[in-house]
Amino acid sequence: MRVVVARLNAGDSFQLAKENRYNFEHREGKVIAMAELLQEYTSTVTGPDGTLYSVASYGEERDDGTWIGWLQFEPDDLTKPTLVTDQETSQPNRTAVEYWATGLEAVYFEGAFERAS
Predict the structure, then answer these.
(1) Quick check: helix, strand or coil at residue 18?
(2) Is 2 in a helix, a strand, or coil?
(3) How far is Cα 24 from Cα 48, in angstroms, rounded to an integer?
(4) What is the value of pTM for the model shown?
(5) 48's torsion region: left (phi>0), alpha (psi -120 to 50) or beta?
(6) Residues 6+ apart with CB under 8 A from 71
(7) Is 35 in contact with 3 (CB distance < 8 Å)?
(8) What residues pair up with 59 in beta bridges, in sequence order?
(9) Cα–Cα distance measured from residue 28 to residue 67, given in angstroms and rounded to the nearest whole number
């Protein structure tokens, strides 16, 4: 799955993710795929108020060819905000960031949830 946003500068989709803007972005007549869903997990995280959050990892290629990865926490209660971590990893290529995403476990998600905003 690709999340499609307009490319302005490297890292734009990461910033859009922080702003919870994952849908199509149209700027200056361009729509370019950037952030990519790496993995959706079966583990969930429970927030302090009891809200359950599903977890997904996203990645994006930077201008220098390296990749960054971050996590998104989607609440089961749609009145709550989606939470996104800052950059969790930097990897030399897509294969490496995909490998990073496959190795994450529930205990990592708990810590990342604390870092997410």
Answers:
(1) helix
(2) strand
(3) 32
(4) 0.74
(5) alpha
(6) 55, 56, 57, 58, 84, 85, 88, 104, 109, 112, 116
(7) yes
(8) 36, 69
(9) 25
- Give the DSSP H or E segment for 40: strand 32-46
Q: Provide the pLDDT confidence category of residue 2 given band limits of 50, 70 and 90.
A: very low
Alpha carbons within 13 angstroms on the beta-carbon side of residue 14 total 18
Distance between the two ends of the chain, CA-based, in angstroms? Answer: 23
Q: Which tokens sit at 28?
A: 């200056």
Question: What is the tens place of the pLDDT at every residue in 66-116?
Answer: 999 999 999 999 999 999 999 999 999 999 999 999 999 999 999 999 999
User: What number of helices (H) and strands (E) belong to the chain?
Assistant: 3, 6
Q: Are strands 67-75 and 32-46 parallel, antiparallel or unpaired?
A: unpaired
Dist. CA 47–CA 30, nearest whole Å: 37
Nearest to 85 by CA among 46, 54, 112: 112
Extract the tokens encoding 43: 């583990």
25: CB partners within 8 A, 6+ apart? 4, 5, 6, 16, 31
